[in-house]
Amino acid sequence: MHFPEYRARRLRRTETLRSMVREVSLDVQDFILPFFVHHGKNNKEPIEAMPGHSRLSPDLLVKELKEVVARGIPAILLFGIPAKKDPSGSEGYSDRGIVQQAVKAVKNAYPDLVVITDVCLCEYTDHGHCGVIHNRDVDNDATLDLLATMAVSHAKAGADIVAPSDMMDGRVAAIREALDDAGFEMTPILSYAAKYASGFYGPFREAAGSTPQFGDRRSYQMDPANSDEAIRETALDVDEGADMIMVKPALPYLDVIWRVRNTFDLPLVAYNVSGEFAMLKAAAEKGWLDYDRCMMEALTAIKRAGADLIISYHALEAARILQGDSSTGRK
User: Fold this and answer.
1) Of the candidates 17, 81, 208, 321, which lies 20 to 30 Å from 44 by C-alpha distance?
2) Structural class in CATH, domain 21-322
3) Are residues 204 and 273 in contact, defined by beta-carbon separation less than 8 angstroms?
């Protein structure tokens, strides 16, 4: 049998050859690790749907970050669980709120670690929606001032980057103006630019207690069928002053990541969300797949699609593997 001169398998024979011609490589510097913080001291509550992750009080968060920093993961993303929820989510924009407390504790312990804060009301409202409710619907414009106030309070506490995830129209412009007016013109905005109304957020909503008490979020988050709309949404946020842009979720939306990457030249973040994480964990517990291998394959796919940075609950496990350790702990 006659073969063409080029044989693809020639460069696949050994791991060294494969690594030499590898087109996309993961690095620890690619990762952002999310954390959930709540009030108290020495207070840790495991999240059942997210094995290995817990709601942590600020003191325990600081302890957990020892390995994160040692591994070289450059950034974390903070979500807060308030002591009390109310219709306007007031703890979210209080200078004494849990995220504000956590930011101060982290920056005091690890000043060089980049702290990103989620700017949204859903964790703090008693109805679970991402904004102010009028007539059982989210009032977009009434919500903007609260989001802007929240972003400023996070910046005052020491947040390096604020990340609005609410999907209200005009929120990037409102936050940019408020930050600039408060003297935080150097605080970047990482916009959840293309955030879909996804079924993959279930474990997160258990962790944050943010399931809507009525209706759903489809009137403000994006329809999973649309990708042209993702370009329009991202363009709006870029025009309003976003410094970084995000696609969320990641794995079901690799095509969207690719389109956004090829349309905009800002740093692009992809959020490998809680449901994506939980699926691999559950299948691995059943013995149906090799967790480490599938995790690294999934993260590589996100990077290959065009993401510069990946927010992932796998981040610490992936860092261990990249540095020659098992995903479940140091050798």
Assistant:
1) 321
2) alpha beta
3) yes
